[in-house]
Write a structure and sequence with these properties.
With about 170 residues, the protein is α+β, with helices and mostly antiparallel strands. Helix content is about 40%, strand content about 20%. The protein is built from six helices and nine strands; from the N terminus they run βαββααβββββααβα.
Length: about 170
Amino acid sequence: MRVYVPLTLPGLAAAHRAGELGPGPLAAYAVTPALREWYVSDDIEELEYAALSRAAAASLRLLAGAPDAARRRVVVAVDVPDQDAVADPDRGLDAGALGEVRIAAAVPMAKAAAVHVDADDAEGDVSAAVAALGAADHGDDDAQFTVDGADDHELLWFGVQEIPNIVG
C-alpha cells in the first residue's frame, strides 16, 4: 500500500540521517475505505492525490509546531504491506481523519518511493496558512481561506536519491 507520511524539512533530514521514518507509531495518509467513500471516485490516481493532499495538510500542522523549520510542506510516499497501515475504525466518519492511518513501527527509507516538497515560492502562502491554522480551527472563514491558499501550490516530486539536495 502506498502511504503518504507528512514531515517538515528538518524531519526529512533526520529521517535521511537515520535511514528510517520513525520511530513508530507514524501518522500517514492512504486510500482508505472512508477516503474512497468521501471522494466518490474509482480512479486510483485521483484517490492517491487526495491522500497526498491530506498528508500535505498534516504537514502544515507539523510546521505549526516547528517555528524554526522552513515553511515548506513535505510528504514522503512510502510503500508498506497493507496490514501495516491501520485506519482507526472509530474515526472513519470524522472528516479530519479521512485517509489517516497509523503505522506501528519505523519504516526504512529504502521503502520510500518519492518525496513531495513545496517550491521556494510557496513559503509565503504556507507561512500564512500555518499562522492561520488556529483561527481556522475555530471557524474563522477568512483564516480557512488563508489555510486553503497553501493548496494553490502543487508539491514538487523528487526521487529519493535527491533527498541530500533537498535537505542540503
